[in-house]
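Q: I'm writing up a methods section and want to include an example of the input and output format. Could you take the sequence below and give the corresponding predicted structure tokens, formatted cleanly so I can copy it straight into the document?
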Amino acid sequence: MKEREEISRYRQAAMFLPVRLRKLAETLPKEDQAVAEEFRLRTGWPMTVLLPGGETCPWPSEPSVEPEELETLCDLGAEFSRYAAAETLREGFLPVRGGFRIGFCGSAVMKGGVCTNLADLSSADLRIAREKRGVAEELAQQLLSDGVPDSTLLLSPPGGGKTTLLRDLIRCISQRGLRVGLADERGEVAVCYRGRPQMDVGPCTDVLDGCPKAVAIPMLLRTMNPQIVAADEITAEEDIRAMTMAAGCGVKLLATVHAADAAELMQKPLYARLLETKVFRRAVCIRRTEEGRSYELEELP
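A: Here is the clean output for your methods example:
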């Protein structure tokens, strides 16, 4: 049953590909369809697929991706209304129906130092979004042993599963009746489509997507009275300031960071300053093992 669901998600994502590439995608062995993470399209090269073992080209003898196919992919993702999708497209991505996400590269159209559009698309990344419901259940029980959890960082290198864990942790916390305000800057956690989350983030979660975290966090505090504020990927000084302000208002925090563990955090100036604020008390280190991923909870210095 689980494998069938994973294959179904793969095929739903493939429906956004141009017809030629969609037919190629259907020929991928089912065992690979069940675990595929992304379709990669680059002008002048055959389409590739990202599998757990790395990016591979199952169709090396097929014609290369053409610029027109990237344009078609964009039109399909935007449902032939690029104007309606302009806000996210100028950021380089499209959230699409079903909870999927397409990232684009091309020639940036700049105005006043700001990217206003992408022209001459050169590559695309169609992410095959999959929920992993239940992966955070045991962790949620640990964090919620005393009611509202302490502020916690989720740590792993890129591609380690931070966003997946954050999403399910939010769902678990929200299902227990705690109000969560989600600052979903890049639309990757709840994956809202026309105002409706495509991923299950729970019944007590309020989502503000497409808004920089430094702006979204104060907005959530003013408007939604959250008990917990969650955000994916702390990457800037202003993110830390916003979270420090939220903590000063008595709100608990959940956030993800690119780092293997607390020791690596301390080696990076931005994150060392984050630890100096004492806002976050715990960290969850995500480890890859032969059996899958494991989650190790540790206290922060």
